[in-house]
C-alpha cells in the first residue's frame, strides 16, 4: 500500500517537472480513444473480479453460518460430548485465520477431517434424529462451500491480461502528458488522470488477489463462530491492532508465530 501511494505521488508531480512534448497536432481524439479502450478493458475485468468477490463473500458467510449451526445441533444431540465438536470447530477456524489468505482449503484439510471425526463421536439417541439429519446436511454444506472457495479464490487475471492492461495504462499516461500546454491547470488535470489510471490497476489487483475481501471478513466474520462455541475471539499474530476487538469480558486470544496460542 505504501509503495502504491508513493508511486501515485510520483505520477502526480511528473507533469509539473516534465517539459511539454510540443505536439502540434490535436491529440484530444487520441486521448479519448486510449482512455476509452482502457476503461472498457479494465471495466470488463473489474466486473469479472467483482462477481468472484461477491460469490466468495457469500460462500464464507455460508460456511461460518453452517459451523454455528453444527455447534448448536451438536449441543442438542449430546450434552456431554458436544465440546469435542466445538473444539474441532475452534481449531478449524483458527487454522483458517493463521493462513491469512482465502486459499486455505488444502492446508486446513486435517482440521476439517478432525471435525468430521468429532461429529461421528456424538452419542445419538432416537429423539435426536431430526437434529442429526440437520447437522449432517449442514456438514455437507460446509464441504460444498470449501469446494467452491477453492475455485473462486483463484486469480482470474493472467500475465497476458496484466500486460494488456499495463500497456493500455501507459498509452493513456503518454497521451495525457501530450496534451499539456504548460499551465498549472493542465498539469493538475494530467497528474490526476495518471493517478486515476494507477488507482484502477491497484483496485483490480486487490480484488483479483482477494486482499479486499480478506481484510473485510478475516477478523469480523469468525467472531460469531467463536461466540457460538463459547470461545474468546482469536486473532493471528499478524492481525493489526485496530482489528483485535475483545469480547464482552474485554479479552481475546492472540496467536504467535508458528500457530501457537
Topology:
Blueprint: H1 2-17, H2 28-77, H3 82-99, H4 109-120, H5 129-152, H6 159-178, H7 184-208, H8 211-217, H9 222-228, E1 234-235, E2 253-254
Parallel strand pairs: 1-2
Helix pairs in contact: 1-7, 2-3, 2-5, 2-6, 2-7, 2-9, 3-4, 6-7
Short note summarizing the structure:
This protein is mostly helical. It is 69% helix and 2% strand. The longest helix is centred in the N-terminal third of the chain and has 50 residues, at 28-77.
Structural account:
With 261 residues, the protein is mainly alpha-helical. It has one domain (2-9, 28-235). 69% of the residues lie in helices and 2% in strands. It has helices at residues 2-17, 28-77, 82-99, 109-120, 129-152, 159-178, 184-208, 211-217, 222-228; strands at 234-235, 253-254. It has a two-stranded parallel ribbon with strand order 1-2. The longest helix is centred in the N-terminal third of the chain and has 50 residues, at 28-77. The relative contact order is 0.16. The model has no long low-confidence stretch (mean pLDDT 86).
Amino acid at each position: 500500500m505504501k509503495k502504491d501511494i508513493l508511486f501515485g505521488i510520483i505520477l502526480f508531480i511528473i507533469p509539473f517537472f516534465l517539459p511539454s512534448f510540443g505536439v502540434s497536432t490535436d491529440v484530444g481524439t487520441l486521448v479519448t480513444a486510449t482512455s476509452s479502450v482502457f476503461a472498457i478493458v479494465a471495466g470488463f475485468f473489474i466486473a469479472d473480479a467483482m462477481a468472484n468477490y461477491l460469490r466468495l463473500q457469500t460462500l464464507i458467510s455460508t460456511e461460518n453460518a453452517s459451523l454455528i449451526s453444527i455447534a448448536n445441533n451438536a449441543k442438542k444431540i449430546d450434552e456431554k460430548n458436544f465440546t469435542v465438536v466445538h473444539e474441532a470447530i475452534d481449531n478449524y477456524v483458527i487454522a483458517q485465520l493463521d493462513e491469512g489468505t482465502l486459499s486455505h482449503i488444502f492446508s486446513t484439510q486435517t482440521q476439517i477431517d478432525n471435525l468430521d471425526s468429532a461429529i461421528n463421536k456424538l452419542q445419538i439417541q432416537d429423539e435426536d434424529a431430526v437434529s442429526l439429519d440437520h447437522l449432517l446436511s449442514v456438514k455437507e454444506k460446509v464441504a460444498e462451500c470449501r469446494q467452491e472457495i477453492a475455485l473462486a479464490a483463484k486469480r482470474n487475471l493472467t500475465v497476458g491480461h496484466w500486460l494488456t492492461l499495463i500497456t493500455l495504462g501507459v498509452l493513456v499516461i503518454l497521451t495525457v502528458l501530450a496534451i499539456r500546454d504548460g499551465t498549472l491547470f493542465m498539469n493538475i488535470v494530467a497528474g490526476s488522470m495518471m493517478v486515476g489510471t494507477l488507482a484502477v490497476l491497484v483496485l483490480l489487483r486487490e480484488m483479483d488477489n482477494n486482499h479486499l475481501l480478506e481484510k473485510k471478513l478475516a477478523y469480523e466474520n469468525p467472531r460469531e463462530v467463536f461466540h457460538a462455541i463459547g470461545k474468546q475471539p482469536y486473532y493471528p499474530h499478524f492481525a493489526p491492532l485496530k482489528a483485535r476487538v475483545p469480547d464482552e469480558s474485554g479479552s481475546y486470544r492472540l496467536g504467535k508465530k508458528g500457530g501457537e496460542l
